Structure formats: C-alpha cells, structure tokens
Amino acid sequence: MKKTRLSRFGLLVGASLFAGGAIAQEGDVERGQAAAATCTACHQADGSGMNIPGGESWPRLAGLDAGYIVKQLHDFKEGRRQNASMMPFANMLNDQQIVDVAAYYSQLEVTPGQGGDDADEALLKRGEQLANRGDWDAYIVSCKSCHGPGGTGVGSDFPGIASQHAGYISAQLTAWQNDTRSNDPQNLMGAIAKRMSDNDIQAVSAWYAQQDIDQEGEE
Amino acid sequence: MALTITMRKRTLVLAVTGMSLATGLTMTAYAANEAAQGDEMPYQTLVELGYPAPQEGELVHVPPTMADLEDADIHPELKKVIRYGYELFTDTQQLRDEYVYNDMNCSSCHLGEGRQPFSAPVWAAAVTLPDFRGKNQHVNNLEERIAGCFAYSMNGTPPEYGSDEMLALSAYHQWLATGAPMYPSQPIYGRGFPAPDQPAEQPDYARGEAAYQENCAICHQEDGTGHYENGEYVFPAPWGDGSNNWGAGIVRVDTMAGFIYQNMPLGQPRSLSDQESWDIAYYISNQERPQDPRYTGDVAETLELFGPTFHDRSLYGQTREHDGHVLGDHDNFGDKGDIKPWNVGMPRFESLADEQ
Question: Tell me: the pLDDT tens digits for B82-140?
C-alpha cells in the first residue's frame, strides 16, 4: 500500500469526526490492525465478514468509508444503534482505537458479497429496478439516489451497499421497518424501508450482494 | 358509483366501493398499468403520504412505466427511441458539454422519471401543447418547451428541433401521456410544483439558512454545490455554477417552495412545514447562479424587460438584505461561457403579427 493513500485516509477520518466534543483524531492503519484483532472472529482478518444462510450475517467492513465506521462504532457504544453481539466489542474500543480500526478496515480491498445466490431472475430484476430506478408508485426512491451510482456509497453518511452480504442488508432494512435501527440521519433510510415489502427487501439484498465493486473505480 | 376510466384499448366502467370518489373525476391510465386495475384508486399511496386526493372535475392520469414499455404492442423501433428518451431524461449528463453545461439531469427536478404527481409530471406538456406561453409570449410546441429547459434549467443550448435527442425526449414525454386526452378541459391532478399555503410569517433568510443546514445540507452540502462521488454526480446543486441559471422556472420563489414542500427531503414529501418550505426556498433564491441567457448586459434593464412575464416571482435584480448584493448583477454564465442558446429570443410567427 502506498504511503500517500494512507495519509489520505488519516485525513478523511479526522475530518469526518462530528460535533459532540470529539477531538479530531487521525486514524492509524497499523494501530487499527492491532486493535481489530478482537473483530476478526466475526468480521474476519480480511474484513469480509460472513453471511450465514438462515443465521446472523456479519457485514463486510473491508473498503467501507472510515467516517461511516467511526459513526457506527460510536452509535453502538452510546446506544443509538442496538446490537447485542456488537455492543460489548464496541465498548472495548476507546475513541482513538475507533478511528484506528476505521482507518484499517476502510483501506482493505472490498471482498465479494455473499448470499442471494438462490434468487431467481424475477427477484433480481426487481432488485435492480429498486436499486437503480426505485418504484415511485409505492414512493420508494431508488437506492442509488443516495448510495450513489453502483451503490458504492456517498461520503460518510451513505454507506456502500454493493458487494455487501444479502443477509446483512435484509436484516438492516427489516430493523429499520421495525424501528429497531434508527441511527440514520434525518430518518432518510427509515422512511423508505417502511414502504418496502418483504419481497422488495429480499430483491435488493440479493441484487446488491451480487454486484462486484470495480476497485479501479473506487479510486 | 360508476366511474369511467379511459384506457388505451378499451373503455371500462368500474364500480368503486368504500371510497368517497367524486363524480366527474376523469381517470386515465395506460391499459396495462396495475394501478388502474382493481378497486384501488390510483395515487392512494400519495394520499396516505399526505398529498391531496384527486378532486371532482380533475384529470387523473397514471403514466406507463418502463416495464410497461417492454410489454407494449408498438413498433420495436419506437420502443428503442422511447427508451433512449428515457435514458436522456434520467441521465442528461451524457449530453454534458454539448447541450448541458451544469450538473443537472431532467429527473433532478422531475422526480420519478417525470411520472410523479406534484413533481411537475412531464406528460402534461404532451397533451397541453401547442399553446401560448407567457414566458416567451408566443405559441410553443413540445419540442420548444423542452428546448427551454436546455437553455435555462440545464444552463445549456438545446439539441436541434427534429434531432435524434429532441425526437427521443419528446417521444418519451408523449409515451408517458398514453391514454390521456389531448387538450383536456379539466385541471390536471398534481400538475407542476404546487406551492404550499402562504406562511404565517414573511419568508426569512436567517431562518431559511438554519432550516436548509438542518434539513438539506447533508445531501446538497452547506455551500449548495451538491455532491459528487468518484467524479459522478449524485445530489444536484441548488445554486452556483452546477445549478440552473437565472432564467429557469424554479428560480421563482413559489415554484421552489412548491418543489421543496411536495418532494423534499427525498423520500419524505410534505414533512417540512409551509413556513420551513418558504424559508428554505427564499434562502436558496437569495444565492447566486449562472446569468439568465436573456441578459442584456444590465441587470436592471433585463429585469424591466422580463419582470412582467417572469422575474416578478423571482429575486433577480433584487438587493440582498444582509450584504447589499444585487442578485444576478454579474457576467458569469457558468460553464457554458460564451455559448448562446439558439432558441432564446428566436422570433416566431412574424407573418401572423398583423392578424387578429
């Protein structure tokens, strides 16, 4: 990995720290790798996470935006995002370790999304429609209008969802429907998720899990 | 109660139960459209979101979708052209530096691919034109109306009348109007960007700025430049060089207030109050953008010429309260530089000038 790239990530994490008394800290990839030792049981050494069919799905962290990871870890610690498995691990990280871990995962190469292999053609077609065009008759705006072209994420507020595990995407959308996740800015995701049917959720989850991210395009 | 629905291939009478549907409501839809089938009234989803229900005497049209196009019984060559029109409408940036010189797509303002009520659905232009247009004081057809969008909203210059791009765009508009009557006598449900009710207090810059930062900046950015990711545009710029110029319809404060109230934040229409919508619209309308292509070289003169037909509803030429800046008093035409849109000020029907 090139040094220039490293320092750019450090800047990103520093700049993306929000208000609330946090002092802008620079993330360090090497320190982050050491601190992430505790994460690998679920998220794996390469940050690929794991999709367990019918079970829990641990998200791919590799290549996610550092600022997004920082916010989620703080939200877990401070109770804005609830997850029984994640909470104790987030609590083990101090503010510096959070930016370090985020810097570490953000610079890892994106790994393939898992799940959705059993989706039939009609489901994938519906997924593609919702992802790229939405379904305005149900007032479901397209995923890409916020998550960006190709679903690769926009800034630190709208995470990349392409090449994420189907089980994780569907679990999150369902959590928004049930109000068990609500840490999105301005209820932007919650409002849309509540208009989606179970079939819609399966469709976008399967479709995005199968979208590869062009690593060149990420640069 | 019986209700007549005009469809593409047939007319059927539908009994509507459990709904206080006014008589005299004209509903039209593409024949294959699911929304027009069964007992459910079209746009019920919108009513549940807080939009007004269709009123007695209104024309309620449900345009076909792109999925309907695939199944449609029309010539495959026409399908190709309509599909191209759709692609141009939703990714107008493919015409960047040729006909488009800002960062907008048609669908940046006409949400839902131009089909959405209360988001200036574009099929209406296909059934109400040719007609006299106050903005340019002559009779316009659909192509000239689209050309206006290129000159103002896209801060560019239009493709030629009859060109592939122009034909494809107008074919897409007309396709969306499938089933709707030509020159309807009824008012159209959800036409334009209906402004919210007049606010209790005069729109205010400082209040508008605060409401913008709270509700809009996460996508459109604090400085209104919109958002790019990997060089691709994601969120449109509400002002500045990436946005529409001073001659676009949405610079009228009431139109912007209507757009915001009926459509923003994305996915949460009508969630802002009347006051917030007007305040935000007033704040955005107080920012700079590329010059009006009708500019004569003098903002006061331009305002005098085009005030009565257009700028009396915008803040163009007005002095900004907090810093004394005169809005539109500049020579910045944005990225298009010296390019003059050929359609602006083009004389029409001179041979008919003396006729009554």
Answer: 999 999 999 999 999 999 999 999 999 999 999 999 999 999 999 999 999 999 999 99
Cβ of B45 within 8 Å of Cβ of A138? The answer is: yes
Backbone angles phi, psi at B312, to 5 degrees: -65, -10
| Closest CB from B45, B90, B234 relative to A139 | B45
Report the percent of chain B where pLDDT is more than 90. 84
Yes or no, beta carbons of A149 and B46 under 8 Å apart: no
Write the CB contacts of B284 (distance below 8 Å, at least 6 apart in sequence): B208, B212, B224, B238, B239, B256
Chain B contact for A155, CB < 8 A? yes
What would the pLDDT profile of B293-312 be if each residue is shown by its tens digit? 999 999 999 999 999 999 99
Averaged pLDDT, A135-157: 95
CB B139 within 8 A of CB B62: no
Contacts of A172 (CB under 8 A, 6+ apart): A181
Partners of B30 on chain A (C-beta within 8 Å) are none
Check whether B343 has a pLDDT greater than 90: yes
For chain A, where are the alpha helices, taking DSSP H only?
Answer: 3-16, 29-35, 40-43, 66-77, 86-91, 95-106, 121-132, 144-147, 166-177, 188-193, 198-209, 215-218
The two structure tokens encoding residue B186: 């009824």
Interface contact flag, B111 A136, Cβ < 8 Å: yes
Residue B169's nearest CA partner among B106, B89, B63, B108 is: B89
Q: Using a CB–CB cutoff of 8 Å, tell me whether A19 touches chain B.
A: no
The CA distance from B253 to the nearest CA of chain A, in Å, is: 25
Strands B227-229 and B138-140: unpaired
- Strand ranges, E, within B21-137: 26-29, 59-62, 131-133
* A82 has pLDDT over 60: yes
Query: What is the least distance, in Å, from the CA of A151 to any CA of chain B?
Result: 11
Mean pLDDT of A116-137: 95
Chain A residues in contact with B35 (beta carbon < 8 A): 137
pLDDT of A218 higher than 50: no
In this prediction the pTM is 0.90
Taking CA–CA distances from A136, the nearest residue in chain B reads: B112
